[in-house]
Write a structure and sequence with these properties.
The protein contains 4 helices and 7 strands; from the N terminus they run E-E-E-E-E-E-E-H-H-H-H. By secondary structure, it is an alpha+beta fold.
Length: about 210
């Protein structure tokens, strides 16, 4: 379980958090509900990070939540949200409304993999746990990562069908993998119940004759 430290609800099943606004220099600033903010208008029925339903407010610390002032990532922007101050001297010692997220499991992502939040310096990251065979691993500019095909499979559950089709067409145009390679991979035993593989089967062009 992953309990939100603001609303005290289970994040993976709660419809919304109660945190719907912030204080910026004594000014009330409303937050965007999921589905209304920049960058998440075309997301799935639940936020891919904190799990709230479309129309609900993100749980504080959500990696996908946008700042209502600068429109950047709220977790890492410099817009200085704070509690009210009793006087000007308190401004140097204010308490942040967004404390460092707890290091605890968040539940599962759309592909069914366990996730947890960790801090890398002052940057929060979401760690997705899953079994990835060597065939799905590659190195890009010295950085280990999953292949384009595996990345598309894993991200498919968080995409609309239009987004999935557009991304698939882009990857095929760039020759990151072929249609035959995609069909072969999603036909392997470990992909039998993968939700992303099931979605990719629906949009892949037919097998070549």
């Amino acid at each position: 379980m992953a309990i939100c430290y603001f609303c005290d609800r289970e994040m993976t099943t709660a419809d919304s958090c109660t945190a719907n606004a912030l204080n910026h220099g004594g000014r009330h600033v409303a937050l965007w509900p999921y589905g209304k903010g920049p960058g998440d208008r075309h997301g799935g029925p639940r936020c891919g990070d904190c799990g709230v339903k479309r129309g609900g407010y993100h749980h504080p610390g959500c990696d996908l939540q946008r700042c209502p002032i600068c429109r950047g990532q709220l977790m890492s922007c410099d817009c200085m949200y704070e509690d009210d101050y009793d006087d000007e001297d308190d401004a140097d010692d204010h308490e942040w409304r967004y404390p460092e997220p707890p290091r605890e499991p968040l539940g599962v992502d759309a592909a069914g993999n366990p996730t947890e939040r960790l801090m890398l310096g002052d940057q929060a990251i979401i760690l997705h746990h899953g079994d990835v065979p060597d065939s799905d691993r590659t190195v890009v500019k010295g950085i280990p990562c999953t292949t384009a095909l595996r990345t598309l499979i894993d991200c498919a559950p968080d995409m609309t069908q239009v987004q999935l089709l557009d991304t698939l067409d882009d990857f095929l145009d760039r020759e990151l993998f072929t249609v035959a390679e995609a069909w072969k991979r999603i036909g392997e035993p470990d992909m039998a119940k993968h939700p992303g593989a099931a979605l990719l089967r629906k949009v892949l062009p037919p097998h070549a004759a």
